[in-house]
């Protein structure tokens, strides 16, 4: 890298002279300088190729030419006090069903000065891609009257390529400019020699700036969007992901060129006696952006490939705060160590950088190795995974960057539909289980539970069970689900008289899923699902079951249990009802669950589980066990010893009939099918059950709250 | 805007201090080097000036904080002991001559590394949020009602506005007791409060009548306040006042799905915390307000942003929220209320954690930790940078092995000693990683005992000086799971294995055998301790229980020194304190398993000691401890449970061959 002092004096010369006469000379110097300063070939201007622009062709307008007079008005200076609420016009973004902003792209225009000389260099590859991305996105609108945002046809990505005053004149000439309100400008390389402001110097009024390299002073919270500096080199280089656990040669690497000598001194200090810290610089001779050399060695190392050999990569500020190295390191799966005081990290409004990068104060650069060495291997691997996810989702292409910026603005305009932290930060496959009932509250006993009894035509047994369950102290209401369309329920007078409310709902179809419908008549959180022939449960047993549910209101709490086992011979899951010492499911012939799960069962069971269950007339209970285990990551709870709903003495059940075998096969089929639909086996096997605290203890019977837990 | 020459040395640039204080950032107005002794907070001594009770409580909370230091030389953060909460000149609590009082603080140094707390800036008629009546210099402001215009990001702290009645410690619980489905309450959206007719901020509340429908959206405002309201009243006042009287605020609060939080004269209003506590999802109508602690709290998970400019859209927005989201938003209000807002000491602790996270970014809390249970105050980041090392973030079993930590107080160890047998029993468990004996005795540690354990299991002795050290998370403990044992308990190996199995599914709880209870003693109006047989329990003693190693870390590093000292002096109650600590953070009861309680009567004769459990004095101390600790937490953190977990088929009349934990069948 040439000494920047030299470049500076070279630039000062032409600047003193009349700018217009020397425009091309100046432009060339600026571009050359830009390459030197940013250290990469990027944002080369190229000519508009009309074929590339679908959005232009769609609007069927040929490229316009507009002459900007020398004395045309210049846009007002950027309004630094702008906030979302004070400057952003929300009236045109409106309330709509999709909660989505719309963005209009001005027709592509060639801006000329009075003598017909173009005022701009045309679009860079990157800006073309950006426009195309917007035009192809769901946000695009071709009608300026319906637009929330406006995108000017002016490539501002690299300030090195711009004529500041003329750019500001072009902006004011835009039809809907209106002081820049709701105009979105994209810029990645702000500032110019020698000062390098941290935001685009073009006067831009109230326009929103999606900028790379903001500092905490230039960035307007709630208003601007901090974007990364796109690295064409990283995007174009194939850096295959290695083993996610791999240990890399170097712990820490600095591979930036053009660092200030003070930083280099600090780095040298930090490297002392640190054999796993390597500093790479430009190779002697002609500068080549894809080569790096150690201070001693002269063998050129390939950049950015070499970044893959280090666990952590330094990203130190140079003239600008936004650094290509950040994207390069991320692409290489190298965890960035960012040393740039006051830098607003890209997309930090939504990205949790603590999980993907380390920020070190510039003052502490000389002790950076201590910080890095203190990070455990586990944390490093997690950060690397996160770095890869962030790069792929938000950094890897102009498209990704553009859409992320638009999504952030969308989230501001419609905060109530904003993407959640997890959606922004977790790789889609890693979004953790979010228990819908995550708050540890114990529902009050006084509310009680609703017994929901599914019945078809077993009136005698139904009436008996209504009377039995009415004895349970915490019962709040009985709801009978009459699943028989041929017969109407008996008149009110014939139903048993109980001291709790009794309601009957009649269903339209005889479906098993009706038992899990979230009827309005259910006014309690707790539902006791009951078959109409479950007569053996004692009042104490049910009351205790409710007690257990109150302690685990997010789980399925039942009595007889079942378990799933992996069958090594068939490579399939097997449903097992044998008396094992593990359980993973409870039967819903009598089980407590939260009403929310009825709501989920009815409205959002994955795949075709619901219709499958209704068609098979079986496995609704397995489906409920799967549903809850999948939402919570927790096991169902078995209450007390009972293992069977039917009396053990009953002869037809004592032996294993052919029917029962077929039944087991069908149930196993259900388990395997559900695993397929969920893409995972959500059930958890546990070896415990819930008993009353004094169960089987040798204390006086009268002390015990739940005496009669019934037989097996 | 800052402009600098890129050829200026970066060091010079950093030292370049022409920033106005208006632009303060941590990099420019805070001296990090003062924090080299760690995060230490110094509070100036109180002065003769009057002080509001709330400011005095803030100072008390700071002085009780584990970050507090009495030595200004090692302090990282300084807090003036002059009440700056109310800077409204018209207020009775306004302190005169603040400028000179602040300037004369011995370490003021233009406010460097100082923090100023403020609830009410400015006064009538402009309520200028920047007007504190004195120059705050480079001090950070922890201030209520800040706006985006003046807020210095990552430097100031947006502070919650709370009532004069706000609790100092413990705090009131949230109102949510059940998650009803569908999660709709009688009113969709409500508000009841004053409106100001004219002047700053009045337009917001003056417009609310537009969305009032006297049905599910109830917007009630009154003009009736202040002396001269009648002179200023507009033509709606009479009607509004009449409507206002029709509804009771408390009833609205409890029965509304959403509560509007519109700005008043200032941006923040009391409505916010009231709604949060009531599990009434806040709907903000206060443009440019920087929400309390929004540097770390993701309010989108607990509240809805309205826009004053789009008032008429609010009804359709709140109606469009999906039921599943309502359920989550509502639970989140309760988590945030109880974790960060319900008491002054939580608000202060939260403020300190935010600042500490900025100063020590390497050991700071992630957004995830801030916004999910159990919250930041339960997570000491120095313990580990990996969330999986904490007991809160996974419901799936992670651990395969445990470390047995045996607390020993005897004089000698012989082959006949209970300790010898205990080690033998524990070592038979296939999951034991190693055994550590904590030797709390004047007698020398036994050195030449040959332990009856397999060769791959290590038995280590460590001398400890205090009873609290039994929970210390020693480096030697390599597993998350710790099996805490008294030397004289007599479990069978199956009991150990079963307890471990259960614990793996409840990593965030204490899981063990000896259960105890607490109760409110009406006669003495004190909390009391009970070891009687009962149908429920709230503690599982650490004489035979599993817990997560992190809780040992919390016990050793988060509790106030005075509590630990008391336990050590009594040589008692460490287990009670441990239970309270765990329930304080996880809000859940411990889990009792199996039949046995491991009473010490069986061992008393063997060791020829009078077991301390029967010592009346000992028992009396435990009553005292329960009450004292609850007082110190500010509330009773213990939670009761009425269930016990047993092995499947436990004591069932089926063949023993079917049972997995067979030894448990025999013991009683």
From TrEMBL, chain A:
Q: Listed GO cellular component terms?
A: endoplasmic reticulum membrane; Golgi membrane
Q: What is its EC number?
A: 2.4.1.224
Instruction: Fetch the Pfam families from UniProt.
Output: Exostosin_GT47, Glyco_transf_64
- An example of a Gene Ontology BP annotation on this entry? heparan sulfate proteoglycan biosynthetic process
What top-level branch of life does the organism fall under? Answer: Eukaryota
Q: Which residues form the Exostosin GT47 domain?
A: 99-374
* InterPro entries recorded: Exostosin (IPR004263), Exostosin_GT47 (IPR040911), GT64_dom (IPR015338), Nucleotide-diphossugar_trans (IPR029044)
An MF annotation (GO) of this entry: glucuronosyl-N-acetylglucosaminyl-proteoglycan 4-alpha-N-acetylglucosaminyltransferase activity
Q: Into which EC class is this enzyme placed?
A: transferase
Entry's localization field: Endoplasmic reticulum membrane; Golgi apparatus membrane
Q: Which residues cross the membrane?
A: 21-44
Q: Which UniProt keywords apply?
A: Disulfide bond, Endoplasmic reticulum, Glycoprotein, Glycosyltransferase, Golgi apparatus, Manganese, Membrane, Metal-binding, Signal-anchor, Transferase, Transmembrane, Transmembrane helix
| Protein family membership | Belongs to the glycosyltransferase 47 family.
Q: What name goes with this protein?
A: Exostosin-2
Species the sequence originates in: Capitella teleta (Polychaete worm)
UniProtKB/TrEMBL annotation, chain B:
Q: Indicate the principal place this protein occupies in or around the cell.
A: endoplasmic reticulum
Subcellular localization is given as:
Endoplasmic reticulum membrane
Give the bilayer topology: Single-pass type II membrane protein
Q: Where is the Exostosin GT47 domain?
A: 38-321
Domain Glycosyl transferase, by residue range, is: 402-650
What is the annotated signal peptide range for this record?
Answer: none
GO terms assigned for molecular function: glycosyltransferase activity
Which GO cellular component term is one of those annotated? endoplasmic reticulum membrane
Look up the record and name the pathway of this protein: Protein modification; protein glycosylation
Q: Record's InterPro entries?
A: Exostosin, Exostosin_GT47, GT64_dom, Nucleotide-diphossugar_trans
Superkingdom of the organism of origin: Eukaryota
Key words of the record: Disulfide bond, Endoplasmic reticulum, Glycoprotein, Glycosyltransferase, Membrane, Signal-anchor, Transferase, Transmembrane, Transmembrane helix
Question: What GO biological process terms does the UniProt entry carry, in alphabetical order?
Answer: heparan sulfate proteoglycan biosynthetic process
Which PANTHER family has this protein been placed in? ACETYLGLUCOSAMINYLTRANSFERASE, EXOSTOSIN GLYCOSYLTRANSFERASE 1
Would you identify the family this protein belongs to, as annotated? Belongs to the glycosyltransferase 47 family.
The protein, known as:
Exostosin GT47 domain-containing protein
